[in-house]
Amino acid sequence: MDTFTYTASPRRVIFGSGLINKLLAEIEMLKCAAPLLLSSARHRNLSDQLAGVLHGSTIKLAGTFNGAIMHTPTVVTENAVQCLKIMSADCVISVGGGSVVGLGKAVSVCAGVPHLAVPTTFSWSEMTPILGETQEGRKTTRSGPSILPSTVIYDVDLSMSVPPSTCTVSGINAMAHAVEAIYAKNCNPIISMWAHAGIKSLAESLPQIVADPSAKPARKKARFGAWLCGMCLGSSTMALHHKLCHTLGRSLGLSHAETHHSAALSNSQGDAILALNSLLDKLGAPRALRDLGMLEEDINRAADIAMSNQYENPRALERDSIRELIRRAWSGEDARVARLCK
C-alpha cells in the first residue's frame, strides 16, 4: 500500500430513525437556547415539524426563515443573517435539501453561530467544508473547517415523504461525488473504501425506493450510502465533474442535483458503464441536459467556461473532448469511455 495522508474532519453525526426527538438534547449540547429554523418555501412543513418538537420545551424558538433557494445567493444569506440578529438567535437549524443546508453553512459562517443540519435528501453539503455561493450570477467557492455543521442528524423518518424522483436525482448526485473522489489527485484507501461502499448502497437501494416508496430499509440504506459519498467529497479535491456542474448550475442556471446526475453519465469508466446505464434505465430519471432547460447554443459557452480556471484534474484537459462530453450529456446519450485529457 502506498503512503498517503488522511485528515479527519471532526463533527457529530447521529444516524437512525426517530432521532428528531433528540433535537433538544443536541441543541443543549451546543450550549444554545434560541435557534433559528431554516427551510425553503416549498418545504416549510419540515420547519413546522421541528418547531413542534421544540414547543413547550426549555429551548425557545427564535423564529423561522423559509427563503432558501438553489445556489445560495448572497442576498438570501444577508436576509437570513439579518433575521437571525433581529430575533436574537444563537444558532441555526437547517432542515431540508442541499440548498437549505448550504444556506445554514453560509449563515453560520457569516454570523459566527453553530449550525445543526437535518438533511432530508441525499445531498452532500452537510459533509463538506465547502461553501458555494452566487453573487450577481457569479459562482464563488470558499472552504474551511468552520463551514462544517457542528452536528448532523440523519433521521430516516424525515426522508420517508421525499418523492422517489427527488431521491433518484439526489442519489445519483451523491454517487457522482464518490466517482469523482476515486479519480481525485488526493484519493487514498480510506476515501476509496467510502466511495465504493456508498456507490454500492445507493445502486442497490434507489431502485427499491422507486419500486416501493414506503420501503424504510431501502430509504435507510440510501441515506447511509449518501452519507458515505458526502464524506468522500468532503475529504478529497474537486475535479472535472464538479467544474462541469458548477458551469451548468451557476453559469446556466440549471438544477444542482439534476446537472450532477446528467453530467455523471458521460464520466463513467470501464465496466461500470453498463451497470450505470442499466441503473438509470431502472430509475427513469432525466438523462439529458436539454430536458433540464439547457439550450444547444450553450454547449460551446459551457465548454469554454469549463476550460477556464480548471479545478485540480489528474491530467490536462482538451477543449474539443470536453465539448463533446457536454454535447452527449445535452442530448442524453448513453455513457461511454471518452478521451478527455491530453
How would you characterize the overall build of this protein?
- The structure is a single chain.
- This protein has 342 residues and is an alpha/beta fold.
- It folds into two domains: 10-157, 3-Layer(aba) Sandwich (Rossmann fold); 162-329, Up-down Bundle (Dehydroquinate synthase-like, alpha domain), CATH 1.20.1090.10.
- Helices cover 49% and strands 12% of the residues.
- The chain has 13 helices and eight strands.
- A six-stranded parallel β-sheet has the order 1-8-5-4-2-3, sandwiched between helices. It has a two-stranded antiparallel sheet with strand order 6-7.
- Helix 6 (164-183) runs parallel beside helix 8 and helix 12 (298-307) crosses helix 13 (319-331).
- The longest helix has 23 residues, at 189-211.
- The protein is globular and about 60 Å long.
- Keywords: NAD, Oxidoreductase.
